[in-house]
């Protein structure tokens, strides 16, 4: 998208505003499927926790994607959008057994990462095939909050507990139809991913009725010019070769599945905010915008980097600014960042705002959530209205005390 397009959308729909470029999502999806084009049965399940707007889900469905879900509500959104239950996998962590049963009754693929839940489910529902999520104890991830493959992670069943899994399977006569792994997010070295894949293959050999192997995702995207990213093309070449060899060894065709979220939508997203104030202190120049971590919490939550551009003055002389929000506590998006000269009323554009941005927004300080727009074929489509005061009051009950 061009800055002029983003400025037009801000004029039309106001700020702050989330904008998603459909072309970028399509390009990322096609890039992944092309990298694994030699795999006969490839399945891409979009991890919808990254961005769950139903128009985005519909766009991905048209491209052939399935869904990776982590809550009954995400499953319901997927079904509402038109996905078939067979196109959805449910990979929760720490949810109630009742929620797992409710999802299973909808015909959705269940992915279990807890021995006690596995035994309970196998005892009550032995005829329902399930996938097992393993923890390969391979560390990957750019931040401790998104590195989930380490030995103390709450995610997955340890590979050292596979004998326990086999005991449960034999005792309950349940069917394991898939093995899943996830090492974390922001994978920098594909050799680490391939090493974890070998652990998945070794685990899979111990189950006779598998239909698919799910390699999760966690692919890193570039956050700024020259930034490193996961080499999907090289990964596709190396993992495809190994997967096809394992299929022959296993003796039957298998589906190779991935669950990309950030990889598909991060670079497609732009967050637009207006500068309310420019404030000079003894050592800092603050650019205060009409938003805060109530709309974009990732920089405050785990130090994520979002490139910030002044699209109102793109050719202006660069100066150093600390970009902050209007929340009444520390609310910093960037410290001493070089940005084209900023004046009050300018529109700042935050890049890589497609994943885990709107989906993590809140009503903190009783602020409204922003609108969302889908940019497709040169036109902006409103896909979520900006909230109003009635939205803040919804579900609240005033009582006389």
From TrEMBL:
PROSITE patterns: ODR_DC_2_1. Its cofactor is pyridoxal 5'-phosphate. Its EC number is 4.1.1.20. The modification N6-(pyridoxal phosphate)lysine is found at residue 49. Residues 24-266 form the Orn/DAP/Arg decarboxylase 2 N-terminal domain. The keyword Lyase applies. Pyridoxal 5'-phosphate binds at residues 218, 356. Pathway: Amino-acid biosynthesis; L-lysine biosynthesis via DAP pathway; L-lysine from DL-2,6-diaminopimelate: step 1/1. This is Diaminopimelate decarboxylase. It comes from Flavobacterium croceum DSM 17960.
